[in-house]
Amino acid sequence: MKQRTIPVSAEVQLWTQEHGDPRNPALLLVMGAGASGLGWPDELVAALARRYRVIRYDHRDTGRSSWSFDAHPYSVLDLAEDIVVVLDAYGVDRAHVVGMSMGGMLTQLLMADHPERVISATLIGTCALSSRSPDEELPGIDAEILDIWATPREDRGLEAELDHRVEHWRALNGTGTPFDPEEFRALERRIIEHAGRYDAPMTHGRADHSGMDRTEQLARNEVPTLITSADAEPVFPPAHARHLARSIAGSRLVEMPGMGHALPRVRLPRLAEAILTHAAQADARA
Q1: Do 174 and 234 meet the contact criterion of CB atoms below 8 Å apart?
Q2: Phi/psi of residue 25, each to 5°?
């Protein structure tokens, strides 16, 4: 396991971490909004690193990367270009890319704008960057989660902040998998220790979201793309996964029974198997 800090600009640096044999094909993990790269569970990283050179990183304004938004605002498109910066810094011409939630949106931007950099893509718990009309109504985000997101972020102190984050994960977990609060409390405590701070300004929600539509590019997509469909997903329910599959040419769906918008330990083996199988198939065609 190696760590590196990569400069994006004079104001922005990104913390990164590499696992596995550097001689293997690269697999880049892209987390969701406001989430550190440590949000990818170590068990999942270890399973993927048995076959791939796994790289994860902290987005801007998370973890040990620069917290710079207030002084130097950026867009979601900038966050997508950070992926290219990370790949370049590691000398990776092409990688398998796995994106969750906002990370899945950033992965779609990469597929559309830099398809030559992507061997395969896996999209988890996300929505299509496509204005193509869905074949069915796309449900909205669960009301409980919207209420949590709308709660003003105050300095509650460390333990109260951990309580808040655990309740957030409880809602994101959905009802398909028993929720283990201690598992997610330990995860968030580690993330806070990693960052050296427990405030969570959620600047990604304040970033400029314009210019993200990639309808035409995704309709012409040639990157082998796997889309997970989680039946207990409370943020982007299964209709969103089906819309993704119809919007992205050549993509396919894999069912994740019981999974929500979280990565509980009990669901990791099936997810790792799906990612590894998809990546191996793409490697065989490359």
Answers
A1: yes
A2: -60, 150
